[in-house]
Amino acid sequence: MNFEGKSFLKLLDFTPEEISALIDLAANLKAKKKAGELVDVLKGKNIAIIFEKTSTRTRCSFEVAAHDLGMGVTYLDPTGSQIGKKESIADTARVLGRMFDGIEFRGFEQRYADVLAEYSGVPVWNGLTDTTHPTQCLAMLLTMKEEFGHLKGLKVAYLGDGRNNVANSLLVGCAKIGVDVTIVAPKPLWTSESLWKRCDEYAKESGATIEITDDLDGVKGADVIYTDVWISMGEEKKEQENLVGYLIVFAAAFDAIMNEQYPEGKYGSARNLLQRYGEDEYCRPWFCKMAGRKQTKEIPSVLWRCMIRGFSFCMKVRWYGLLSFGMKLMVRLHLTETLSDTGRRG
To answer: Which of 95, 263, 272, 303 has the fewest Cβ atoms surrounding its Cβ within 10 A?
Structure first.
């Protein structure tokens, strides 16, 4: 399958066969790297990586992937360029397209990535926008295939903000590839009806089922439970406050269900504390109260990969020349001392 010169902007642009081919290519490159084989097939190429939204793991994984494949990398952040300030996105695209063989974009608006692809004349890879995060979905699908040996027929339950970029891409990717998916989120945080209907059509073609619900029973029977940061980067302050109100209670209720289901504590808490509010006086007492019991023992906050395994990692899959990847560790532990202290203050 030939992807040469093709941009990777959103999963809606790709067929199920193409998505499967990307996953297989990523697995192949990963195996070669682990075996110590050089994969510098793009030696002499140069790419620009634009980070309107800064990131540790995404930047490192793109840069390491590019270097593994033999490419040179130029990093541009908001302080290092005039993108969208003194020059338009289209003008920037034209300039970069003359100098580089490809462009990665991680930023706010999806249209910026689209304009870069339209005017640069080189492939553009979406590292994240406000509405889509396609590499994250590919990473999850690759991890699932490594874990279970197949994808079709598995069930993913996503818990959290159901209209954010990760949830949108998971809905599309799973529906196309034949993976059952349930988005479990408060009703005000559901994805758009238009995307839901579109994905329902994909699911009918692939044999998958999709569901969007605010009922926590939606996680039952899932092979994989997936979550993300509770509040996305760039949310306005007032919106953040609204989201905290929705999601803290929701996550704590989910906590209570999981702790009842697994009283031995092997899996700990399934909640992923807000990175921005996780150590705040306002949030932690809410979690303790809603869980309905004292938090006196170590209860780690984890990103679930699958119900039968607990701790997980999620690999960032990169497109064509970037399909070598870095691992994104999203396990955040909250130690006994911290939680005990929270209980006393709450």
So the answer is: 263
How is 158-209 classified by DSSP, letter by letter? Answer: EES-TTSHHHHHHHHHHHHHT-EEEEE--GGGPPPHHHHHHHHHHHHHHT--
| Catalytic annotation, pick one of 53, 133, 305, 316 | 133
Determine whether 79 is an active site residue: no
Is the pLDDT score of 193 beyond 70?
Answer: yes
DSSP SS3 for 259: helix
Token pair recorded at residue 304: 């679930």
For this structure, is 345 an active site residue? no
| Contact (Cβ atoms closer than 8 angstroms) between residue 346 and residue 338 | no
Is residue 57 among the annotated active site residues?
yes
pTM of the predicted model, to two decimals?
0.74
Supply φ then ψ for residue 280, to 5 degrees. -85, 145
Q: Is 133 one of the annotated active-site residues of the chain? A: yes
Q: What is the pLDDT of residues 120-141, one digit of tens each?
A: 999 999 999 999 999 999 999 9
Contacts of 341 (CB under 8 A, 6+ apart): none
21 pLDDT exceeds 90? yes
Q: Among residues 124, 156, 159, which one has the least CA distance to residue 47? A: 124
Q: Rounded to an integer, what is the distance from CA 84 to the centroid of its chain?
A: 25
Give the angle subtended at the CA of 326 by the CAs of 320 and 332, to the nearest 5°. 140
Annotated catalytic residue, options 33, 45, 57, 163: 57
Q: Which of 86, 237, 238, 266 is catalytic?
A: 86
> Beta-carbon neighbour count of residue 226 at 10 Å?
28
| Catalytic residue status for 106 | yes
- Report the range of poorest mean pLDDT among 147-151, 159-163, 272-276, 300-304: 300-304
Q: Tokens at residue 43, please?
A: 């030696």
51 within 8 A of 25, measured Cβ to Cβ: no
Question: Taking Cα atoms as reference points, which of 83, 85, 106, 75 lies closest to residue 232?
Answer: 106
